[in-house]
Design a protein that fits this description.
disordered N terminus; five-stranded mixed β-sheet; transmembrane; alpha+beta; CBM2/CBM3_carb-bd_dom_sf; CBD2; CBM2_carb-bd_dom_sf; 227 residues; polysaccharide binding
Length: 227
């Protein structure tokens, strides 16, 4: 009967009596574990605290470093379908030449002086031969100073005080051809003047006053001389 009672109630009562000591037991176990762990650490040396005494003539080798691995193989281009990958052309930039800034050593161009106009070989001299009250007789002496015969053209322009032309002629030579354009009177030679010779062109004009000088006189485009 006692064994049965112990089985039914003795274990429970013993367990209830030992519960207050359970935390102390656990704490003591933890303390023993920590003491054991600390002892193990003290007995085993720390690799960082190990010191190596230097030996004369002996140098520790430097730690080996892994070599950098370079791959010479180009990455394979991705192929989509049957098209080949696009290849971009490479361009080489050519050097740009800058213009030289050296001063020019050439002397400045000197303009050639213009040659003087050639002296005309056919010239004319104007004069009033015979002045009258209401008219006058004038002359243009045409002279050829060249080495060959030459034609001539005499052109006269008079001011308003000189009136109409009465007559004109070439003395001792073929007669000239007369034409008029406005206030200009133009005579063209009927025959060339021989080299070194002269042809006197004479004319008679009506006028008022005593004037008989023309406002313009030319022979072959050159101004006349006056006497």
């Amino acid at each position: 009967m006692r064994k049965t009672a112990f089985r039914e109630g003795g274990f429970r009562e013993g367990l209830e009596e030992s519960l207050p000591w359970l935390p102390i037991i656990v704490a003591v176990g933890l303390l023993l574990f920590m003491v054991l762990l600390t002892g193990l650490r003290l007995l085993s040396p720390d690799p960082d605290d190990v010191t190596v005494e230097a030996v004369p003539g002996f140098t520790l080798p430097a730690p080996l470093r892994p070599a950098a691995v370079t791959s010479s193989a180009a990455p394979a281009p991705s192929v989509t379908g049957s098209r080949s990958p696009a290849v971009r052309p490479s361009f080489t930039r050519l050097p740009v030449r800058t213009p030289s800034t050296r001063p020019s050593t050439r002397p400045p161009a000197v303009g050639r002086p213009s040659s003087p106009a050639p002296t005309p070989t056919v010239t004319g001299v104007y004069r009033v031969m015979a002045p009258y009250d209401r008219e006058f007789i004038g002359e243009v002496l045409v002279t050829n100073s060249g080495a060959a015969p030459a034609d001539w053209v005499v052109e006269l322009v008079f001011p308003d005080e000189v009136g109409e032309l009465r007559t004109s002629w070439v003395e001792s030579a073929p007669q000239a051809t007369l034409s008029r354009s406005g206030d200009r009177y133009i005579w063209r030679s009927g025959a060339p003047v021989a080299a070194g010779s002269s042809a006197p062109l004479r004319f008679q004009y009506a006028h008022t006053g005593t004037g008989g000088q023309p406002s313009s006189c030319t022979v072959n485009g050159a101004p006349c001389f006056y006497s």
